[in-house]
Amino acid sequence: MKKRYLQLTGKIIAFILCFAIVFLFLNAVFSDLYATRARCFDRMEDNSIDAIFLGASQMFSGVNAQKITEEYGISSLDFGSDMQPMMTTCYYLQEALKRQKPKVVGVEVCEIFNDSITVERLVYNYSAMPLTSEKYNSLQTVLDGDKLRAVKYCVPLIANHSWWNQINPIETLRDLFFYNSAECAERGFLYRYTVEPQEIEYLGEKDGNIREIPDHSKDAINYIADLCRQNDIKLVFFKLPVARDWTRNDSKTVKEYMSENGFTFFDMNDNFGEIGIDPETDFHNGSHLNTPGANKTTDYFVQKLKSLEVF
Fold this sequence. Notes:
Layout lengths: L1 H32 L17 E5 L1 H6 L2 H8 L3 E5 L5 H14 L4 E5 L10 H8 L6 H10 L4 H8 L1 H4 L9 H10 L2 H5 L29 H16 L3 E6 L8 H13 L3 E4 L4 H4 L7 E3 L2 E2 L1 H17 L4
Parallel strand pairs: 1-2, 1-3, 3-4, 4-5
Antiparallel strand pairs: 6-7
Helix pairs in contact: 1-9, 3-14, 4-6, 4-11, 6-7
């Protein structure tokens, strides 16, 4: 009887171990399926980054961290994800400060007016991130305290179930085991050389409606500012040039808020000429710069950062 009991116990343990291995492997696969460019953060050496840039896709399409590192000697990283709300930017900064001690943190504010939470946003923003208490707490905040959904989106295998049929086994295994080189060498920056000529709505006469900054975004900004103060980090907010989905009224609202609260804010939509942005050649689409445009804004941005006498 005792022998049979031991055999049964051994089988149960073996089953649990096999299940755990398969689960962890599949979870890693689904983490990679919709992995953000933030994954290269894991490959950076501890305390090796002087400037970290946070935000949504406009950030890692418009600030060339690789160029800043190689040409200006300021070790930099774009640490962001698609459609990232300000609430989630707080979490990314928390994760960054676990391993890095930057001199500057730059936050792109393209999502400052948007606090809507969709499944797509949750998947893009959290799938590639490690399973930590900060991840769970951030999801609870974003989901207004919904603990069950927070647990769900902590686990990519569960969160990404609707994309199971999109897995390409060969590509997924390649990315899972050999992920690193290109995107990590690019330090999170997304190279885009396609050109889509634009008419710049921001510079037109039609400003659109006046939008208010949601409380969620204000709370996130204050939290980010507190973290930077506690860690003796220079905090800079900025807005990259866009062709649409941003108006002069938006700029005015953000400038007033930043000024009233004593934050440093650079709005590059005011400086198309100085930066040298050409609407015919420097955009990937209406919301994102291509690489030639990003290189221009990067050169301009570095000079602004240097004027703060941090580097």
